[in-house]
Specification:
The chain is α/β, with parallel strands linked by helices. The chain has one domain (about 1-180): NagB/RpiA/CoA transferase-like (Rossmann fold). It is built from four helices and 13 strands. It has helices spanning about 1-15, 20-35, 40-45, 135-140, and strands spanning about 45-50, 70-75, 80-85, 90, 100, 105, 115-120, 120-125, 130, 150, 160, 175, 180. The strands form three sheets. It has an eight-stranded mixed beta sheet. The radius of gyration is 15 Å and the shape is globular. The two termini are about 25 Å apart.
Length: about 180
């Protein structure tokens, strides 16, 4: 199973490396438009976002509009969510990911109504393949997390099928530059 996951990761990373920054920005803007159009997004008072790595879609433009926005911070082997009003307040954190600084106010995961979930790949059933650290796997397994789970990626990251393990959890929808796939 791990070999198959490693093969999928290598395949998708190669596709992402081939994407230019200009194309990535254009596709990210379309992804944000699709997310903003989701009914769940428009009514949510509290949302979890992420500050992506270089190859991931940029969703920071969704922060604001009267919505309480939480960003994850690595705390040991877990993710904690903290309020961010201005994405300029994010600081360099673990693994080169921008995250809330020490003075940010914690948001309990139970308060999140929509959670944008990054992934290296998603499949046609909403299953997710992460980068291998397990941070989001542990987050998605929390019993207090009742948010609508929205996977966010570029279309090239949607594969027909992914290797799945018992701990893997599907997202409720996946948004790419081409639109929204809803699974539940």
């Amino acid at each position: 199973m791990k070999t198959r996951k490693a093969d999928c990761r290598a395949q998708v990373k190669e596709l992402l490396r081939a994407m230019s920054d200009v194309v990535r920005a254009e596709k990210s803007a379309k992804i944000c438009e699709h997310i903003a159009g989701l009914a769940e997004w428009s009514v949510a008072g509290c949302a979890g976002l992420f500050a992506g790595l270089r190859g991931e879609p940029a969703v920071a433009g969704l922060c604001g509009g009267g919505k309480l926005c939480g960003y994850p911070r690595v705390e040991g082997d877990e993710l904690g969510f903290y309020e961010i009003v201005d994405v300029g307040d994010l600081v360099a954190g673990a693994f080169g990911v921008r995250e809330p600084g020490a003075g940010a106010r914690r948001i309990e995961v139970a308060a999140l109504e929509v959670l944008l979930v990054p992934g290296l790949a998603f499949d046609e059933t909403g299953m997710r393949l992460g980068r291998g650290g397990g941070f989001y796997d542990r987050l998605l397994a929390l019993p207090d997390l009742r948010a609508r789970l929205v996977g966010v990626c570029f279309e090239v990251q949607v594969l027909p099928e992914l290797p799945v393990e018992a701990h893997d959890r599907a997202v409720d929808a996946v948004v790419t530059e081409n639109g929204v796939r809803i699974f539940s």
